[in-house]
Design brief:
The chain has 111 residues and is mostly helical. The chain is built from 4 helices and no strands.
Length: 111
């Protein structure tokens, strides 16, 4: 087994572990904002690790996988931001422990 193959196995394993932890976080965390954090941050890292490992297994796929990674890195924060804004506008989704709400304060200034 070559060094590249070992690194590829480690990266795909770590990526799969991070993706599993992300899914577990989305399932177990209490409110929509925590779930969104787990769903965005961990899936971005897990996908990057997993796709890098796949690229090491099959180097000819690396350019295409790099495009997928760039797409994930650019779209995950944007989609998370849109979901957070939508959840913030829904009163039932606001957690009980929300002490400082800067977004609500800035809405009052814009009116």
């Amino acid at each position: 087994m070559s060094v590249t193959s070992i690194i590829a196995h480690v990266l795909t394993g770590l990526g799969a572990l991070v993706l599993f932890a992300s899914g577990l976080g989305v399932f177990r965390l209490p409110d929509v904002f925590n779930k969104m954090h787990a769903g965005t941050k961990a899936t971005t890292l897990g996908s990057i690790l997993f796709l890098t490992g796949l690229g090491l297994f099959e180097p000819s796929w690396m350019p295409k996988l790099l495009l997928v990674v760039v797409f994930i890195v650019l779209t995950n924060p944007v989609s998370s931001h849109a979901l957070a804004r939508a959840a913030h506008n829904e009163p039932a989704e606001k957690p009980d422990n929300l002490i400082i709400d800067d977004l609500e304060e800035s809405k009052g200034e814009n009116q």
